[in-house]
Predict the structure of ABC-type multidrug transport system, ATPase component.
Amino acid sequence: MQPIISIKNLSKTYDTGHHALKDVNLDIQKGEILALLGPNGAGKTTLISIICGLVAPTGGSVTVDGYDIISDYRETRKRIGLVPQELAIAAFDKVFETVQYSRGLFGKKPDNAYLEQLLSDLSLSDKLTSELRALSGGMKRRVLIAKALSHEPRVLFLDEPTAGVDVELRKDMWKIVNRLREAGVTIILTTHYIEEAEAIADRVGVISGGELLLVDDKNNLMQKLGKKQLLIELKEPAQAIPESLAGYALALSKKGSEIIYTYDITSDGTGITALLQAMAEAGLTMKDLKTSQSSLEDIFVNLVNPQ
Ligand SMILES: Nc1ncnc2c1ncn2[C@@H]1O[C@H](COP(=O)(O)OP(=O)(O)O)[C@@H](O)[C@H]1O
Ligand SMILES: [Mg+2]
């Protein structure tokens, strides 16, 4: 099957001389959800901006549905929706009108029923005539998504869709993404939260310093790189890890008031039940339990300095 997006030897050097992208190659299949994971400055927005025709590449090529993003710009742009990282919004526009207008820009026939359904899916039904300036940040972001979907694109780019949004909106966003996937829309999102990639992506690309370091099926990636930590808060601080627990990968922190257990996310058993049992037998009483996921930072360290 022909990929919906095909990126070949793509590079970008800005006028400042900065190499923001270095020879990126990537095929994206129809209907998949791809997360581009990378720290600030990695080149994520640059990559998306090139595909959407907002930034000119300095080398290589990209096709969308077989059309070249430069010579067939109109064809490629029609098929793409973009929710930009920055909240750029005209304060006095009204919700329904601005979404209608976006659709019109792409030369699509008016279809208010479609737009009403779209806005309803985004929980904006009661805001149709509100001015954008009257909306909360989260609501504004929903409007941006509606605008990006107004012309029924086959590919949706979400640039850091949940950076700085509240938990409720983040969950809603994931639901929206899933619904769009069911409708056959291909979704490319950038994020620096590995939890987000884990929650919704089929495939994950790791990008750093303008290079696509790897692209892999999410489960493979988590298997290769994922480690989780369990933070066990103790009722009484411990001086040292009891010898009977030497078989576990444990560390003491916070002056002995917390034990950190690192385990492999994907091994058959986490060993947590046995550990808690052994802790109780060693006389350690726990107050609270938390888990934390290896950060993108850890993953990069692993990628750059494989053990
Ligand atoms: N218009 C520009 N001119 C010069 N440098 C830029 C421009 N836009 C981005 N950059 C630089 O390119 C690098 C990648 O930026 P960007 O693609 O925005 O990264 P990300 O979205 O992953 O944070 C950064 O070092 C950034 O400072
Ligand atoms: Mg960015």
